[in-house]
Each structure stands twice: as C-alpha cells, then as structure tokens.
Design brief:
The protein is of the alpha/beta class. The protein has helices spanning about 15-25, 40-50, 95-100, 160-165, 180-185; strands spanning about 1-5, 30-35, 55, 70-75, 75-80, 105-110, 115-120, 125-130, 140-150, 150-160, 175. The protein contains five helices and eleven strands. It is globular, with a radius of gyration of 16 Å.
Amino acid sequence: MRILVVSDTHGDLERFDRVLSKLEKESPVDMIVHCGDCYEDALNIRMSCGIPVAAVKGNCDHEFSETGFLLLATEAGDFLVTHGHMENVGQDLQRLYYKALENDCIGALFGHTHRGVFTEIDGVYLMNPGSLSRPRDGSGGSFGIIETDDDQVCGKIYRYKEFTEGQAAGPSGGLRPKSGRLRRLLNDSDRL
C-alpha cells in the first residue's frame, strides 16, 4: 500500500493539488491520510480526488473528536493516525510512541508541529509530514509517503520545492522489517 500523508493544510490546498497531480502521473498512491487542521480540507480532498481518504480532526478544527485518533490497517500492521496535540508532540514523542504500542500499532502518523519527521523508535515508525502550506521548519513545505507490504515499512518526507522541481516520489528510506512488538510490549508491561 502506498499512502500520501499530509497535515496542517489550514484551508490552503493549492500545493496539495500540485503534489497529488504529479504523484498521479508518476507514482500513484492508494490512499491519502490527513492528520488534522483542517478536517474540512480532508473532506474536500475526499470529494474531489477519487482516492480513499482517512482523516482526523486537529486542535484548530472547531469540534475535534473525543478520541482524537483512528487506526489505519495496512498489510504490515496498523498505524495510529492522530493530530498529535493531545499527545503533546510539540514536547517529545514519548506519549505518541506509547499510545501506538497500547493500540498494537506498528507506527503513528501525526501532525500539529508543522515540522516534517520520519523516525523509528524501537520498531515503531513515527511520521509527521510537516505542512505544505504553513511549514515551521524552514523546509518551504513538506509531505510524507509511507509504503507497506506484508512485512516491511518504507517512509520518506519530501520537501515541496525539491519534489515539484523534479525529485520523484519513488520508494525511499529503505525497506525496514517489522521488529518484535511482543518483546517490547512485555518489556514495557508496566504500562498495561
């Protein structure tokens, strides 16, 4: 499964439309995940593009949900999708990491900070695609691609300017095998 991950579009879908148009021509995606702010943008994307869209509400969405997250099933395992403000991702990723573990997820997709990052902590993949319209990391805007198959996860953050000026969004970051979730769960059993 090939997933386009975006967040924090805040009503500005111009760059998103350019990214999706290029992806459709060069390397189509199977799904789009919008990690909140603004949920209405995700609804507009869903109506206009014909690709399945999974979305959560963020702190700038007037009526954000009580749970604030959803579970996205992939061939490699489930991903937790959240905006991140309720997990305090602006400070660190520890609460997000444990929330992914507690929900038996292999990873988490989140936003809120407007800063792109893809990392792995003890076998749990964490991706914040940054923001295409309001970046706070000097990137000029970014988005993420996650690719999964039966036992591997691959992910990469793409900078908008580099991508639109020629960089293809093919497989990247190296395929990584899933690692021992059961071992980690037992080691962290005091969290249960």
